[in-house]
From TrEMBL:
Gene that encodes it: rnc
The protein's name: Ribonuclease 3
GO molecular function: double-stranded RNA binding; metal ion binding; ribonuclease III activity; rRNA binding
Localization, UniProt: Cytoplasm
Annotated DRBM domain residues: 141-210
Taxonomy of the source species: Bacteria, Pseudomonadati, Pseudomonadota, Alphaproteobacteria, Candidatus Enterousia
Organism: Candidatus Enterousia avistercoris
Domain of life: Bacteria
Family that this chain belongs to: Belongs to the ribonuclease III family.
Summary of subunit composition and partner proteins: Homodimer.
Function: Digests double-stranded RNA. Involved in the processing of primary rRNA transcript to yield the immediate precursors to the large and small rRNAs (23S and 16S). Processes some mRNAs, and tRNAs when they are encoded in the rRNA operon. Processes pre-crRNA and tracrRNA of type II CRISPR loci if present in the organism.
PANTHER family named in the record: RIBONUCLEASE 3 (PTHR11207:SF0), RIBONUCLEASE III (PTHR11207)
Keyword field: Cytoplasm, Endonuclease, Hydrolase, Magnesium, Metal-binding, mRNA processing, Nuclease, RNA-binding, rRNA processing, rRNA-binding, tRNA processing
Binding annotation for Mg(2+): 33, 102, 105
């Protein structure tokens, strides 16, 4: 198991980062998550810029999207044991990975506030370097991959996306999207329509590939 190689000068920041809004509506990790998302995004972008000097913007963007996705963040959370430490209220099984991902971002936000950007970046790079090196060819984003899969299999037909009701708190909405292709459907959710569409496309690809 990997470790979070950082010792907090202010342990209360870590405690806040591990507290979900379902436990404490006022003192929780949502604001830290907001900061951590930006720290993670810039740190991973800089890492990719360094590791792949010959790749174009689109290729770097596809790598970046995969590396900061909910799935990747949730996996990192489990690898460093955050899933065992996070304090949360009642959660359905399907939302656990979103919770783990959000907690990971919040912890990076807490490290940024506690030790500064350079320290937070070093922690992130240590955890992400192997992940960034794992894909030799830049991966396609899920929507592009689904479109190409469907077009090869269904005489040029395109996936159809439908935006469903927005859920979640007003200050932190969760967008829900349904995608249909080849007689099958799947849904996905995310903090933006783009993220929700990508999540839905990824789910449908799994179904169609069976």
């Amino acid at each position: 198991m990997k470790k979070l190689n950082y010792t907090f000068k202010n342990p209360e920041l870590l405690e806040l980062a591990l507290t979900q809004s379902g436990v404490d509506a006022k003192h929780n990790n949502e604001r830290l998550e907001f900061i951590g998302d930006r720290v993670l995004g810039l740190s991973v972008a800089a890492l990719l810029y360094e590791m792949y000097p010959s790749e174009r913007e689109g290729e770097l963007a596809r790598r970046h999207s995969m590396l900061v996705s909910t799935e990747t963040l949730a996996n990192v959370a489990i690898q460093i044991g955050l899933d065992k430490l996070v304090r949360h209220g009642h959660m359905t099984a399907g939302r656990n990975r979103h919770m783990y991902a959000n907690t990971t971002e919040a912890v990076f936000g807490a490290i940024f506030l506690d030790g500064g950007f350079d320290v937070a970046r070093d922690v992130i790079v240590e955890l992400w370097r192997d992940l960034a090196a794992a894909e030799i060819i830049a991966p396609k984003d899920p929507k592009t991959a689904l479109q190409e899969f469907v077009q090869k299999s269904a005489s040029g037909a395109l996936p159809v996306y439908e935006y469903l009701t927005v859920t979640g708190a007003s200050h932190k909405p969760v967008f829900n999207v349904r995608v249909s292709a080849m007689g099958r459907t799947a849904t996905g959710s995310g903090a933006t329509k783009k993220a929700a569409s990508a999540a839905a496309a990824e789910e449908l690809l799994k179904i169609l590939a069976i």
